[in-house]
Amino acid sequence: MPGKLKVRVVSGRNLPVMDRSSERADAFVELKFANVTLKTDVYRKSLNPQWNSEWFKFEVDDEELQDEPLQIRIMDYDTYSAHDSIGKLYIDLNPLLWKDGVTGISGWFPIYDTMHGIRGEINVVIRVELFTDANKYRESSCGVKFFRSSCVPHVYTAAAVYGFVEELVVNDDPEYQWIDKIRTPRSSNEARQRLFSQLS
Predict the structure, then answer these.
(1) Per residue, what are the HEC states of 4-27?
(2) Contact, 43 vs 18, CB < 8 A?
(3) Whole-number Cα distances in Å, 32 to 1, 69, 72, 91, 125
(4) How many CB atoms lie within 10 A of CB 37?
(5) For position 16, what pLDDT does the model report?
(6) Are 48 and 1 in contact (CB under 8 A)?
(7) Domain C2, which positions (predicted)?
(8) Residue 116 in contact with residue 139, Cβ under 8 Å?
(9) What are phi and psi of 120, to 5 degrees?
(10) What is the Cα–Cα distance from 43 to 11, expressed in whole angstroms?
């Protein structure tokens, strides 16, 4: 079932000082979903930026909606060097995929950095609009419920039982990849954080 993911970045608060001379930050936000990355404008010299962005829109398929988290990365703009990372968060979109459930979430979310911990908060609005299947012979898997339980709840019947294969989980763990030897600790930590988000 194809759909549209819409995200609006409202504001941030209590960001860390990133520029020692001004005691402020020049923050902007990168939104990444699947292979598409979009950015807000830079909000200059503030620890409480007010982006009030327009709606960012992603055209998506149900497989991406179920498998990919929305990545929100808060960055500090630098003119002459690489932009500094303030923090990041992952938002699982599965709760928005029930046909009769909520279609949006909004509010304040903690900004997390794997090296420094919580570094402020960001206020975002997220909506998912699902379209009717274009192909009448293809059924969408949106709305299929998964449980992590030792038994099936009494109001449901089990159609199939799946489990993780330990070897596959270990092989996908970034800790076991050779690239860990050449990338920064923050990059390795973020790769693990993304993997844990997907496995959950």
Answers:
(1) EEEEEEEEEECCCCCECCCCECCE
(2) no
(3) 21, 9, 7, 11, 15
(4) 11
(5) 94
(6) no
(7) 1-109
(8) no
(9) 100, -170
(10) 10
Q: Write out pLDDT tens, residues 95-139.
A: 887 766 678 899 999 999 888 889 999 999 999 887 765 555 455
Asked if the model's pLDDT at residue 162 lies above 50, the reply is: yes
Residue 140, token pair as written in the block: 């969408």
How crowded is residue 9: how many other Cβ atoms within 10 Å of its Cβ? 26
Nearest partner of 33 among 92, 107, 101, judged by Cα = 92
pLDDT digit string (tens) for 52-80?
Answer: 999 999 988 877 888 888 999 999 998 88
In the structure encoding, which two tokens stand for residue 11, read together? 């504001």
Which sequence spans correspond to the domains of the chain?
3-139, 145-200
Give the integer Cα–Cα distance in Å for 56 and 180.
33
Q: What is the 3-state secondary structure (H, E, C) of the chain?
A: CCEEEEEEEEEEECCCCCECCCCECCEEEEEEECCEEEECCCECCCCCCCCCCCCEEEEECHHHHHHCCEEEEEEECCCCCCCEEEEEEEECCHHHCCCCCCCEEEEEEEEEECCCEEEEEEEEEEEEEECCCCCCCCCCCCCCCCCCCCCCCCCCCCCCCCCCCHHHHHHHCHHHCHHHHCCCHHHHHHHHHHHHHHHC
